[in-house]
Amino acid sequence: xxxxxxxxxxxxxxxxxxxxxxxxxxxxxxxxxxxxxxxxxxxxxxxxxxxxxxxxxxxxxxxxxxxxxxxxxxxxxxxxxxxxxxxxxxxxxxxxxxxxxxxxxxxxxxxxxxxxxxxxxxxxxxxxxxxxxxxxxxxxxxxxxxxxxxxxxxxxxxxxxxxxxxxxxxxxxxxxxxxxxxxxxxxxxxxxxxxxxxxxxxxxxxxxxxxxxxxxxxxxxxxxxxxxxxxxxxxxxxxxxxxxxxxxxxxxxxxxxxxxxxxxxxxxxxxxxxxxxxxxxxxxxxxxxxxxxxxxxxxxxxxxxxxxxxxxxxxxxxxxxxxxxxxxxxxxxxxxxxxxxxxxxxxxxxxxxxxxxxxxxxxxxxxxxxxxxxxxxxxxxxxxxxxxxxxxxxxxxxxxxxxxxxxxxxxxxxxxxxxxxxxxxxxxxxxxxxxxxxxxxxxxxxxxxxxxxxxxxxxxxxxxxxxxxxxxxxxxxx
Amino acid sequence: xxxxxxxxxxxxxxxxxxxxxxxxxxxxxxxxxxxxxxxxxxxxxxxxxxxxxxxxxxxxxxxxxxxxxxxxxxxxxxxxxxxxxxxxxxxxxxxxxxxxxxxxxxxxxxxxxxxxxxxxxxxxxxxxxxxxxxxxxxxxxxxxxxxxxxxxxxxxxxxxxxxxxxxxxxxxxxxxxxxxxxxxxxxxxxxxxxxxxxxxxxxxxxxxxxxxxxxxxxx
Lengths: 478, 219
Fold this sequence. Notes:
Chain A is an all-alpha fold and 478 residues long. Chain A has a domain at 273-478. Chain A contains 19 helices and no strands. In chain A, α4 (96-118) runs parallel beside α10 (238-264) and α8 runs antiparallel to α10. The radius of gyration of chain A is 21 Å and the shape is globular. Chain A starts with a helix and ends with a helix. With 219 residues, chain B is mainly α. Chain B has one domain (2-211). Helices cover 78% and strands 0% of the residues of chain B. Chain B has eight helices and no strands. In chain B, α4 (96-117) runs antiparallel to α5. The interface between A and B is large, with 55 and 51 residues.
């Protein structure tokens, strides 16, 4: 009998192999949905199982939250992806063989992300993240337009450089662990490294964290290493954008967190928190300002993702039970909301035949359902009550204010700037005379509604189960 | 033990020399030859570690470095250059002199940083690690200062050479990582191949500046 944790990794890879051989696109879509559902069910058993650290895999309260979020968003995205891909084939942007490639790659990416999340070996963590990155590179270039190829190339170069630096950092952590834990696998096992952290070489850990922060930080999208992110978001198929923004960025942040925990547990090493706070805050402010210059709808929300990743990095850097709890909540809320927004954006781009916001006008008249979804999503991500994002942002800011009032005011300024930019762009797209040239497209409503409803409910009251989980995760993070 | 150590340091030093040499070349053919030479040195260095550390599975990594990076990839890239009729010169953003000066500065930085940081660590690998970091940084420098797609690929692979050198120099680092690194290089090549050919189809020339004309936001 295999453990549910192993299944969450294996099922997507097996599904990917099967889907790649599916004779018809419709069958492939169904296969993807079935696979992600099976993964979700396997993930459903995880909370009831033991929290244990093996030689290669680990399950604790932190990665539990990330894995559940992954499994859930992947399932809803697969439902959305079925409609989206059918539309793309009807429009003629995708051919059936390419759509099969897309479906297989989507599942492989899910498997790779789960591998990274479940890994207890820091080498394996790196492999999972690297694999997921390579898969998204292929997906970003899927449409093969000049812009798509440029985006994929840029993503590939910056992503590889980032991941190489992260690997060098991983080697340094191993060397630090070697003196305390001996040669071989134990010195690469995260849980053992954490336990032995006070005995690790402090200066090696410092150097390692510098490489890891830059390396994995590139993949999180922290400024000034974010250049790949908007391009990659705007060019790939939208379901990929949704999981890229809602999940893959989280996985990179998760990797950074794991190493932060080790370094923070060695009192003689430099405290990693302030570095993360500084980078996170700079990212937040920078992205909020950049939001005003955007003309492409997917790039707009890509910058919004950079902004939120900045906020999360700031919050995790600050630490403490309350702020960690709020940051974990924010990871969850941002993942759900941002993917819902991209669901709406994908259909808007299909319906209007463009991603240029100047050519998207009067959505509330021409496509009321989409307009409602987009508006609800954008208001939620802008941090308006009563959505869950408001709750998590509020908790982060109040938690941070007592210890760092000035920094918190800066963060608040960034959030307000972003709020203004999003509202400005949103009302331009929603109201006015509808722009001509709209196409009728099939719309997949359920995933969008489900995500937004969850975010809405989480804003009104947090179920005890969820807050329990997050609380325990915050305790593990310290 | 010290004897074994001298040899591995010698090979790492030669690899660093090859990295500098990569920065000086102004013909693509010479770049590919130099890279192949570096890959041969890498496989020797890895092979030597496998022998002296008595970790036979490292020979797999050495063989991969020799077969893939020293032979298959340079030959494939050479063919591509011939077949696509690319300009055979190297397009430099920064001249050779200044690039070498920056390279020198990066190398001193790497040596000073790693030697100082690992001073307390009782590890035989610290000098090897410093040299590996220098190779990684020079690979980055090459990716930044040499613009054509082929030289960027070579720069990236030379960076990977530094990483593998560091990984094998770290005594007892588990096999899973080495194989995965070699594997990821393979995948990276596939990805690169797809892109290089696609880029050619669309732009009738493999040059990064041709791609950079296309910008999503600045229409």
